[in-house]
What we know:
This protein is of the alpha/beta class and 138 residues long. It contains five helices and six strands. A hairpin with a 4-residue loop joins strand 5 (112-116) and strand 6.
Amino acid sequence: MREVFAQQSDLAGMSYSGGEPFAQAVALAELAMRVQSMGKTVISWSGYSLEQLVRREIVGAREFLQHIDLLIDGLFVECLAGNEVLRGSTNQGLHFLSGHISQEYLVDIPRQELVFNDENITYTGFPVDQKLLDYPLF
């Protein structure tokens, strides 16, 4: 499996999102370390703030943070929904932890993406317009 992942030249890295990745910090720290050892980047979202992650006694949190290139922190707050890159609401922050990802890296990232193939339709992103989600695909 490691060889297959490493050979994906168009794959820049791995991202972890909800539930709460820091609920599995020990395992994800190990996985993130392996991803970075292959020259790939790690992005993680968390409902916790960076300050909470550093301050709290979440087992493995500090080790996990050491292997995250970009942390997007803070709870999604629906009344603060906005058009921020990689964030669902304006209260969420970007923390460039390693220097491997910078603000300049975050250009031309679509807020939403639909991928169609013969077997699946995959939707990812942060909907700004609820109408897209209400649109019947079939």
